[in-house]
Design brief:
Elements lengths: L1 H33 L3 H25 L6 H22 L7 H25 L4 H26 L4 H16 L11 H19 L4 H56 L1
Helix pairs in contact: 1-2, 1-3, 2-3, 3-4, 3-5, 4-5, 4-7, 5-6, 5-7, 7-8
């Protein structure tokens, strides 16, 4: 049995290595197609190595029996995000071809709706898969916000940084780590961010319209995060009040116990 588990672990690790290899292949294709510069190459390679290292560590910690079909879809999407990241890094020197940039990003966004369905259809939903999917989404939004900020201004970076700011705040205020109830509105707002940023990044709209699209993206995201933070705060206060009442009741009971014994 131990040998079988070791063999399966090796297969899982091999899949992450294949993902890194595909990332390098995509970078080579992009480099050949557009003559990508050193910034794009280095950023794309750094993304590939970081993805492989973090995912391998997470798999080693959770020890799944198999990588799973849904994670393969997410890994493929991460490969596309790595390509988009390389193009954005390269854009500081030369603007990437719009068709190529929009195509890679659009496919990555479309696949965002596929991995979850595959996980549910195959019964392979796992906390690791959900976290992997969320991190790929968040990083793509960050990369797109960086690209759009070059034409619209640094305020656009708030869209990409908001989720990471929330994670950082949760390390200080533990009540932000409490689980949130399911929300279709939250999912819709999250999905809209990629779509609206891609529309803004495409350059098909005039400046004023692009500004409006990005403003809508930021406004809906602030509303979604604000609503969730308010819910977490109220829940935290309610839990504190409940604990306080319980402690008060226990204190009263302890005070009354000697009186009952004396009588």
């Amino acid at each position: 049995m131990a040998l079988n588990n070791t063999y399966e672990a090796r297969l899982v690790q091999q899949e992450t290595a294949v993902g890194a290899g595909l990332q390098i292949l995509l970078l080579a294709l992009l480099g050949t197609a557009i003559g990508m510069g050193p910034a794009g190459w280095l950023t794309g390679l750094a993304f590939a190595v970081a993805t492989w290292a973090v995912l391998s560590r997470a798999l080693h910690r959770t020890r799944p029996r198999s990588f799973g079909p849904a994670n393969r879809v997410t890994l493929g999407r991460a490969t596309l995000v790595g390509g988009v990241t390389a193009l954005v890094a390269d854009s500081f020197q030369d603007s990437p071809p719009v068709t190529l940039f929009v195509g890679l990003t659009a496919v990555a966004l479309i696949l965002d709706g596929v991995d979850g369905k595959v996980a549910r259809a195959t019964g392979t939903s796992t906390p690791l898969g959900a976290r992997f999917d969320m991190e790929v989404d968040a990083f793509l939004i960050l990369v797109l916000s960086v690209y759009v900020s070059m034409s619209q201004g640094p305020w656009v970076l708030l869209i990409g940084a908001m989720r990471y700011g929330f994670v950082a705040a949760a390390r200080v205020w533990n009540w932000l780590n409490a689980p949130l109830p399911p929300s279709m509105a939250r999912k819709t707002v999250a999905a809209l961010q990629g779509i609206l940023l891609l529309v803004a990044a495409s350059g098909y709209l005039p400046y004023s319209a692009t500004f409006g699209v990005v403003a809508v993206a930021l406004g809906t995201l602030v509303w979604s995060f604000g609503r969730d933070i308010l819910w977490l705060w109220r829940t935290h206060r309610a839990d504190q009040a409940a604990v306080g009442e319980l402690l008060e009741l226990e204190f009263v009971a302890v005070e009354r116990e000697p009186e009952a014994v004396a009588s």
